[in-house]
Every structure is written in structure tokens, then in C-alpha cells.
TrEMBL record:
Gene3D superfamilies for the chain: LmbE-like
Protein name stated in the entry: N-acetyl-1-D-myo-inosityl-2-amino-2-deoxy-alpha-D-glucopyranoside deacetylase MshB
Any Pfam family hit: PIG-L
PANTHER family, sorted: N-ACETYLGLUCOSAMINYL-PHOSPHATIDYLINOSITOL DE-N-ACETYLASE, N-ACETYLGLUCOSAMINYL-PHOSPHATIDYLINOSITOL DE-N-ACETYLASE-RELATED
MF terms (GO), sorted A to Z: hydrolase activity, acting on carbon-nitrogen (but not peptide) bonds, in linear amides
Organism: Desulfosporosinus metallidurans
Lineage of the organism: Bacteria, Bacillati, Bacillota, Clostridia, Eubacteriales
Protein origin, superkingdom: Bacteria
InterPro entries cross-referenced by the UniProt entry: GlcNAc_PI_deacetylase-related (IPR003737), LmbE-like_dom_sf (IPR024078)
Amino acid sequence: MAKRMLLIFAHPDDESFALGGTIAKYTEKGVEVTLVAATKGEAGKTAGICKPEEVGLVREQELRRAAKVLGISEVIFLGYRDKEVPFAPPLKIVESLVRIIRDIRPQVIITFGEDGASGHRDHRAIHHFTKAAIKLAQEPVEPEWGKAYTLPRLCYVKPGWKFTKEQLQDVDYVISIAPWAERKWQAISEHRTQMGSRQKFENLEERQKQDYLSREYFRCDQELGALPGRGEDIFQDLERVES
């Protein structure tokens, strides 16, 4: 059975900074990973690399290079503007996501949690749109959008490297990424316009930096996914799930 993972995020670079090691680990193990980006990051910094009006095109190219580094099979852009995802027509964006979910039929979807990890409003919005799409995708409605599909497992990426011990109690999956840390950093480095974000991580105190490059953290939705779990392998117990 082919293993498939669907990532749904807001901007180019979300994938590399948040879970680049996990992506590299699973693609190396043969998992087919598809990435959905709601925007091209048009409101991001240019780092002097391009003109402000060119940053969307440049960040799209950066994402495609990072995806290649990480082994991502396909990148899908939804076409919304950076910082405007909360104002996307709900039915339109949910329809797009339902079609993608029903087409790919992944065992695992990963997106941001309700807090958006950093609190960015685009991150929070894509969380809610993703949940709505997962719920609708399993219902026997809108057959022209594809055959209904019940998602086995939904996970939210969490910035566990800066969590307290108490906060870590809410984490369900801790993925060891040390062997893939170099590829994670290589993917991050492809996002050249986001030099400021890279510098923030480079300036972390040593303990946090080591944690950031050795583990990635996820919370499993215990209600929306049909087969929630806990452990060190996001695909654990999903071997027999039919697509």
C-alpha cells in the first residue's frame, strides 16, 4: 500500500521551518508527500534579492527548490494573497481542499494547530479551512468533487523546541530527525528571501538549537482523524488503511 502524506500550509517556507526534517525522513522512506500552499508569500521580505512586486514569484521558486531538497512530490498553490487567507471565500477554498483530499487520499494530513504556531492569521485560517475540508470530504456529498474519503490521521505541527515540560505533555508525536537535520537546514536555506527568519534560529541558545535540529513535534487531532495515535511514527498502525 502506498503511503501518502498531505501538508496544508499558508506560505512558502512554512514546510521547511516547521517540519523539514520530518518531510525528509518520510520521503526517504518512500512516503509520497504533497504540499499545498495557500499563498506565494507576496507580503514577505525581499532581503534585497528582488523588488517587492517580484517577491511572490521569487518565493514560489524558492519553495519549489526546497521541495526538491525535501523530496516532496508535488506542490499545489491555491492562489490566495499573503495575509488575505482569512478573507478567502469559504466555500471556494474548502472546495479546493476537498478536491485535493479526495484525489490524493492521504493517510496523514499535517497542518497548523488552532494557534497557527506563530499566531499568524493566515496560519490560523488555513487550520480552520483544513478542518472544514476534512469534515466535508468524508460526507457523501458533491460527488463531482471526488469520491468521499475519511481521513485516518490529522496532525498539527507544534514548536516543541520552545515548549516547557508541561506543554510537551500535550504532544502526541515526537519525530527524531537528527539524520535529516542537514537536509532540513538546506531546505530552509533555499528560502533566501527569508534571511531574517533564518537568523532568528541561528541566534537561538544552544539547547534550543540542538532540539530544533533533532526533533519535531506534533499533536494528533483526537476527534477529527479516524485513527488518532501517539508515539514516534506518524504512520504507525496505518499500514492496513485502504485508500
